[in-house]
Specification:
The protein is of the alpha+beta class and 585 residues long. The chain has four domains: 156 residues, Beta-Lactamase (2-Layer Sandwich); 96 residues, PAS domain (Beta-Lactamase, 2-Layer Sandwich); 70 residues, Signal transduction histidine kinase, dimerisation/phosphotransfer (DHp) domain (Helix Hairpins, Orthogonal Bundle); 153 residues, 2-Layer Sandwich (Heat Shock Protein 90), CATH 3.30.565.10. The chain has 15 helices and 17 strands. The strands form four sheets. The protein has a five-stranded antiparallel sheet. A hairpin with a 6-residue loop joins strand 4 and strand 5. It is elongated, with a radius of gyration of 58 Å.
């Protein structure tokens, strides 16, 4: 019996048969117990009713014969046996014997007195149930005697239980037939999808993934069918995915920052992403399929491809392309094309113009910083030596030498402090002391610290501060440092008798502060880098003015730490406007 259908069918039938047998057994037992109790209750009620009916006859002094006739009528109407016990010296018993035949008097030990007679003599109602009789007793009113009612157990209980058992057996037979049909249908419903799954699996093994079960069921079979359909869909998608792999690979390569060029063993371009096409100045679609040496690329690039394909090793170089020049690094690596002993190459192009510019800025800063340090040190050393060796022999010359030393020490201190401040701010070592700051008052204090310089240079200051300018939450010392740096730059890089403007306003939950000057301005190509460390739009003039190129970098770092932003506008020959915005509240 290997068929799943037969196993399921027999399993249903056996389970049903066992369930019916158990159910019938417990039903018969429960019915027999329940019906026995009902019969007992009925007989107790009838005993009391008969005792009430016989009481007048006993009280009237009817003879035993008359009482037996009356009892016989009661027995016929109730299909029971009645035993009447009258009080007296002989304890007369009036009733019928077994089988319903009239009997005569008997003493207390007579067989006609059934269990419970001794108790009835005490005046209590007794229920006695045993084989093969069911009995109940009741006392006559006024203590006139006792009545015992009996009935054969088989007649009042077993006959009805037997009928119930026959009914249950008949119903069970009908249930078995109906269940067999249902089991047949269920087994077919379960096994048919499984047979279809086997057929689908055979088709899938042959490479046909177009068939689907499409079972509209929510049970485990339906879930299994959905899994088969999902498997077929996944396999079909996998085949389609393999066909689209090259397109997908190109999409991925197109999203990377570096330029990528792939060639086959014959040096024909098989892939070039948009970044590489832009860096090399060639068309992306037109380049695919062409030989690498036919694209008009610099000879150094084609040589690296040829060298890599010839020697199967990594080849790299650096070169400059275009105007303005962009500096590139080229790495060409051999890759196996999938064919045996066939190698192609993949080149990675990286634009390092920005990193080279930063490196040049750092080198320039080292040079500038060295000059800034060396110049004051030279002056300090010279004038200190003049004082020490007596060259500055007059009081006036010694005072002048000391003044120069103090001034140059100040320059060194500013450079050192700027470097330390920038380092601490950018590393997060500086903890801001946040509290409400009156920016209008802070701006006035910053301008007041440059009052002498502004007056000496004949500059005009225009201040535009609303009266209701709200406070911002920030570090007052650091924001003061921001204003000092911006105003200092506006003074240093302004023209003589120029104008300095400081304005503040609120907009959309932000406080914006702008510092303008009427200096030479900043070239447009320098604006993207003006906030970077070490950057100076005019290095020669900055050196003359004693700048280090760190002021604006410090401004940007402080404002960023407050959650704000910085910006700059400039027109060459007209001046510049530096501004920052801080969140209110």
């Amino acid at each position: 019996m290997r068929s799943l259908f037969a196993k399921l069918f027999l399993a249903h039938l056996i389970t049903l048969a066992v369930a019916l047998v158990i159910f019938s057994f417990f039903l018969s037992s429960a019915f027999e117990t329940l019906y026995g109790r009902l019969v007992q209750q009925w007989m107790v009620a009838r005993a009391h009713d008969m005792a009430e009916a016989l009481a007048p006859a006993v009280a009237a002094g009817k003879s035993p014969q008359e009482l037996r006739e009356l009892i016989t009528l009661m027995e016929m109407s109730t299909h029971t046996q009645i035993c009447l016990v009258l009080p007296g010296a002989g304890a007369d018993v009036v009733g019928t014997g077994p089988g319903g035949k009239p009997g005569g008097k008997a003493g207390p030990g007579s067989q006609q007195a059934q269990p419970g007679v001794a108790t009835m003599l005490t005046g209590e109602t007794v229920l006695a149930c045993g084989e093969p009789m069911v009995a109940a007793s009741a006392s006559l009113p006024g203590g006139q005697g006792f009545l015992q009612l009996r009935a054969p157990y088989a007649d009042v209980v077993e006959v009805y239980v037997a009928r119930l058992r026959r009914l249950v057996a008949f119903a069970g037979g009908v249930a078995v037939v109906i269940s067999a049909l249902i089991a047949l249908l269920l087994s077919e419903r379960i096994t048919l999808p499984l047979r279809n799954m086997r057929s689908l699996a055979a088709r899938m093994a042959e490479g046909d993934f177009t068939q689907r079960l499409r079972l509209k069921r929510g049970d485990e079979i339906g879930i299994l069918g959905d899994s088969f359909d999902s498997l077929a869909d996944s396999l079909q998608q996998t085949l389609d995915e393999l066909q689209r792999e090259q397109v997908r690979l190109r999409g991925i390569l197109a999203s990377v920052a570096e330029g990528i060029v792939a060639v086959d063993a014959e040096a024909r371009v098989t892939l070039i992403n948009p970044q590489a096409a832009e860096l090399l100045g060639v068309g992306q679609k037109q380049s695919v399929g062409d030989y690498i040496d036919k694209l008009g690329l610099p000879q150094e690039i084609t040589d690296r491809f040829s060298e890599c394909l010839r020697e199967n090793r990594l080849c790299s170089t650096q070169l400059a392309l275009g105007d303005p020049k962009r500096f590139l690094t080229l790495q060409v690596m051999p890759v196996q094309t999938g064919e045996e002993s066939r190698w192609g190459a993949v080149a990675v192009l990286r634009d390092v113009t920005e990193s080279r510019r930063l490196e040049e800025m750092r080198s320039r800063f080292i040079s500038d910083a060295s000059h800034e340090i060396r110049t004051p040190l030279t002056a300090i050393g010279g004038f200190a030596a003049a004082i020490a060796d007596g060259t500055a022999d007059s009081e006036q010359e010694r005072i002048r030498s000391a003044s120069v030393i103090v001034r140059e020490v100040g320059r060194l201190s500013r450079l050192t402090n700027d470097l330390l401040d920038l380092s601490r701010i950018e590393s997060g070592a500086v903890k801001l002391n946040l509290q409400p700051v009156d920016m209008a008052e802070l701006i006035r204090e910053a301008l007041g610290s440059f009052e002498t310089q502004i007056r000496e240079r004949g500059m005009l200051v225009e201040l535009d501060l609303p009266r209701d300018l709200p406070a911002v939450r920030g570090d007052a010392d650091r924001l003061y440092q921001v204003m000092v740096n911006l105003v200092s730059n506006a003074i240093r890089f302004n023209r003589p008798q120029g104008k300095i403007g400081v304005a503040a306003r609120t907009s959309d939950g932000w406080l914006q502060v702008e510092v303008t000057d009427t200096g030479a301005g900043i070239p447009e190509d320098q604006l993207p880098y003006i906030w970077e460390r070490f950057h100076r739009a005019d290095p020669s003039r900055a050196r003359e003015e004693g700048g280090t190129g760190l002021g604006l970098a410090i401004v940007r770092s402080i404002i960023a730490a407050h959650g704000g932003t910085v910006s700059v506008r400039s027109v060459v020959g007209e001046g510049s406007a530096f501004s920052f915005a801080l969140p209110l509240g």
